[in-house]
Automatic annotation (TrEMBL):
Origin species: Nonomuraea roseola
Source taxon at top rank: Bacteria
Ranges in coiled-coil conformation: 132-159
Residues of the C4-type zinc ribbon domain: 204-238
Protein name: Zinc ribbon domain-containing protein
PANTHER family: PHOSPHOLIPASE C-BETA-2-RELATED, SCAVENGER RECEPTOR CLASS A MEMBER 3
Alphabetized UniProt keyword annotations: Coiled coil
Domain CT398-like coiled coil hairpin per the UniProt entry, residue ranges: 14-194
Length: 246
């Protein structure tokens, strides 16, 4: 392949811009915020699940408390009704009186037991509510922290995007100065090796850093200026410059 030395030299500018774009793509993929956000999202999901479980438990206890309070009321109302009958003086038979008094006493004991149950549920509910509040607070705090990390990620991505757009635009300009067949070869090699062209500098290929043999250097010295050379080691396009050592 033949190409004007100036066009060949532009390949080095293209390679430099491509390496800038590669670095930017790498930065985009490896932003520290990405790992932070992943970890925070995992923790958030965990806390959200725990909060839902705690809310369910607190809800169950609230219903349990209502039911226990209703039980207390039922027993209390029965005891009050019996007490009224006793106080009314309408029950006169000693046997009935004794039976009524014994029922009232039994209802009071029952009420006492049921009130104990209510108190015990209230204590458990208090603990459950505190757990809900704690988990919801932690979950919401994490959401705020994560939103801040997302903002930092977005700002970093915007900055990288700006630098990439600038490099892309300069790359397009450079590419117009390179003949289509040379550009196609460069792109093919770039796809294969990551970098498509390298400078010959002081007798070394700057792509693979290998020093060329005397025979290769002699061959290059006698090659026409417009011949497109390739590194025998890494197959990249080898571009001659005044620093090539030939
Ligand atoms: Zn090489």
């Amino acid at each position: 392949m033949k190409a004007a030395p100036a066009a060949q030299k532009r390949l080095l500018d293209l390679a430099e811009l491509d390496s800038v774009l590669d670095r930017l793509a790498h930065r985009r993929r490896t932003l520290p915020e990405l790992a932070v956000i992943d970890e925070q999202s995992r923790q958030y999901a965990q806390l959200a699940t725990q909060a839902i479980a705690a809310e369910t438990e607190a809800g169950d206890l609230a219903r349990e408390q209502t039911k226990a309070e209703n039980d207390v009321d039922t027993v209390r109302i029965r005891a009050e009704r019996d007490q009224k009958r006793l106080d009314s003086g309408m029950v006169t038979s000693p046997k009935d009186l004794s039976s009524l008094q014994s029922e009232i006493a039994s209802l009071h004991r029952r009420q006492g037991d049921l009130e104990e149950v209510v108190l015990e549920i209230m204590e458990r509910r208090e603990a459950a509510d505190a757990k809900v509040n704690d988990l919801v607070a932690k979950r919401d705090e994490l959401a705020t922290t994560r939103a801040a990390a997302e903002d930092r990620r977005d700002a970093a991505l915007a900055e990288i995007g700006k630098e990439a757009a600038d490099a892309e635009s300069r790359r397009s300009d450079v590419a117009t100065e390179i003949p289509a067949d040379l550009l196609a070869l460069y792109e093919k090699l770039r796809g294969q090796y990551g970098v498509g062209a390298a400078m010959l500098h002081g007798g070394r290929c700057m792509g693979c850093k290998v020093s060329l043999s005397i025979a290769d250097m002699n061959r290059i010295k006698t090659a026409p200026h417009d011949e497109v050379l390739r590194c025998e080691e890494c197959r990249r396009i080898l571009v001659r410059t005044p620093e090539s050592g030939i």
